[in-house]
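Hey, I'm writing a tutorial for new members on how sequence and structure tokens pair up, and I'd like a real worked example in the thread rather than a made-up one. If someone can provide the structure for the chain below, I'll link this post from the tutorial.
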Amino acid sequence: MRDLLAHADLARYAGQFVWLELSYDDVKNRAFMTKYGAEATPTFFVIDPQDEHVTAMQPGAMSLPELTQFLDRGKSGAFAKSQTPADAALTRGDALLAQQPADAAKAYEEALRSAPDAWPQRELVEASLVQALQDSSQWQQCAETAATDAARMKRDVIFVRAVVGGMWCVASTDPAPWAEAALGKLKPLAEEALSLSTTVRDHRDATYRTLMYISVARHDNAGAAKWGDRWLAELDAIKPSSDDERSALDIARVENIQIFGDPARILPALIESERVMPNNYIASLRLAQMEIAAKHYDETIAACDRGLARTPGANGTAWLLQIKARALRQKGQTEEAHRALEQALQAAEAIPNKGSRDMNIPMITDALKATEKAAK
């Protein structure tokens, strides 16, 4: 998304928006992250400066057409003198989506009920409803809604968003009759989404991930390998134009192998990325993840130490130290592992995002207890 924002022609919005980018890792941003519920990156908000309420919100990467639609929606919510009931319900759903997704789903459903058939925002709201149902763990309703609504959508970026959300809901639950029925409708749509040139990289990666997860859950290793190979071939064919794009490709490679595959396959690409991005701790972190998966414990520790020397934020520090501690335990260095986990806990307590903080602290605490038990 940084590349898109850096090169997109957004001149027509000059003077209408104040652009603000906040680091997920910077402790100074904790108040904002808590107030607006930014749980993932990237997440985009349009905020009314009069009272600081959200007029539009969307998680995940966007194409340029999707970005301009998002900005127009946010501007309308902030400056329109009056809104139709459907538009007002859409704005309310966007404001609730980050922190109260179940309530956001109800607002989107209200928007669809009150809108005329030709309402130009209908497909957007249908995709947002799928997102809200996914975020509130309403797996069956999410998958079935996506399967029904996406089938009749225009084949554009909103269609892809709806399909990706539905596929995640199928992948998030154990196989069941309703899930198999929804998958039968969604899988051809997912393959269609992959065939569209307008499908952004993040959505392509998410689609491949869900196809792999679903295959593994159904003990279809051949299917998982097929989708994994196709995904890696796509990634390897891309010549990154920036460090941000290179990092995104490496993240996708690691996510691929973490589902199914041989970590040795992607180590050369990760080693090269760390070489050409000497100040990027993420490059070291991704390499460490795959070195430990390959049971290369000395190489894992070395990669973690290089990453820690690259001034990561609290989240990155906690993550690197946890990986290092696991490698140290595998080498039988229990005391060193314990010290690394103590440092990881201290870093985790400073993570700005509450969701990430609340996830990391119990995980590190449990690892500390296990290390103490092993030392006795």
